[in-house]
Amino acid sequence: MDVPGVVSGALGEESPVARIPLKGEDVLFLTPTRTLVYRAEGLLSDETVEEYLHDAERVSVREGRRKAKIELDYGTDGTETMEVPASRVDDVVPPVLAGVLNAAGVTGPGESVKGVYRFSELTLVVTSSRLVKHVGAAAWDEDYESIDYGDVTAFSAEEGSVASTLVFGTDGHTERIKVPNESFREVKEAVEEALFAAHDVSTPAEFAQLHEPEEPDPTPERDDMGFADSGIAPIEMSGADDDAEEQTRSETGASTATTTDSEPASEATTAESRGECAANAKDEERAWRERSRSEPERRGGDERREQNDRRRERTRDRTPAETREPEPAPEPSIPDDELLAELRDILVAVERQEDALASHSDAIARQRAELDAQEDRIAAQRDELAEQRQRIDDLIAAIRD
Question: How far is it, in rounded angstroms, from Cα 169 to Cα 164?
Fold first, then answer.
């Protein structure tokens, strides 16, 4: 990079990262912290170097017919104005603004500026990692908004009659930015290129697929866990088993008694046989009495259980209807057609107001441009008068010599 000697002395240990020709031999050099404007030697002036630090709090741009003025506001340290040809302002503003954003911590190391788009009251700075938005007369100040590409999950565009809208969707939030139609396509393509590159995709379809919500698995999971693993004890049918055992014992006793009756009568002739028969008869009588007592008790227990079951069923059938909670009455709903019509009217009114504000801003911008043009004409006339005065002084000096 060709650097004049006077510029090398002003750079010190820094190296220029950009070189922008201005007019004639005038050149603008940019470093990470400063902007240096080299003015070549002229008929009435020597070569000079103007230095502008990037730690400004506010950047404003005013364009005239011949010259453009970039104003850097340093707060309590004052304001400095950089003059460049009007034909080179679009080449100068982006790198200068990139240096200011980097110095303010808005952009990070290695983050590059892809484009700067200035409208009447809106400035958009498209970088490789974010979109910086500023609303106001200034190109940038500390009252700005930033949309990080990493937070964006949806991106679309809405076309309008005067201006179209860029729609950014993040988690739980939607950001809308209106851009005039004459520049909308250029801005949209720049934003898409930077956004897709940040997400490592190349098309809108790939970006949308990247952020589609995952669908739940329609197949329900089977629960193969058994009772032993779940800690739930199996239901014991103890009552039914006891009844079955009791019935078995009763049948066994009846069978034993029948067998005793069928013994041969010949054994009753002896005293021993008669004693055994008497004992057996007593045992049989006792067993019969026990069976007689246990059978009604068992039947009574079964009857009581059946009565309790029937009583509970009748109680459920007799539950009064008034004890049930009344169902809530449906809330009156507004018809969808009426709601959509109201929203459409509100949207139309908002767009009309925005169009009116845009027209007003354009009128102010035209008036400002006319004032700047008048200032440029006055400055040009002053320069011509100064040159004429210098020529007159040179002629007078030559005549005296």
Answer: 16
Q: What percent of the chain has pLDDT over 70?
A: 69
- Distance from C-alpha of 157 to C-alpha of 170, rounded to nearest angstrom: 15
- Nearest in space to 58 (alpha carbons), one of 39, 40, 71: 71
Q: Among the residues of 176-270, which ranges form H helices?
A: 181-198, 204-210, 227-230, 238-261
**pLDDT tens, position by position, 4-20:** 889 989 998 899 999 99
Q: Is position 203 within any domain? A: yes
- Give CA–CA dist 256/11, Å, rounded: 125
Chain centre distance of CA 389: 66
In a domain, 125, yes or no: yes
Question: What totals of helices (H) and strands (E) does the chain contain, helices first?
Answer: 8, 15
Looking from the CA of 386 toward its CB, the CA atoms found within 13 Å total: 9
CATH at residue 121: 2.30.29.30
**Alpha carbons 94 and 89: distance in angstroms, whole number:** 9
pTM over 0.85: no
Domain residues for the domain of 47 are 1-53
Whether residues 98 and 171 share a domain: the answer is yes
Number of domains in the chain: 2
Average pLDDT over residues 13-37: 93
Q: What is the DSSP letter of 232?
A: P
In the block, tokens 């970088």 appear at 127
Q: Beta 79-85 vs 67-73: how paired, if at all?
A: antiparallel
pLDDT computed for residue 266 by the predictor:
44
Reported as a single tens digit per residue, the pLDDT across 290-317 is: 665 555 555 555 666 677 677 666 655 5
Separation in Å, CA 354 to CA 104, 143, 161, 169, 368? 31, 21, 12, 22, 21
Both tokens assigned to 228: 């032993």
> Average of pLDDT values for 325-339?
62
Q: Can you read off the two tokens belonging to residue 233?
A: 């004890």
Question: In the prediction, which pLDDT does 263 show?
Answer: 45
Q: What is the pLDDT of residue 247?
A: 56
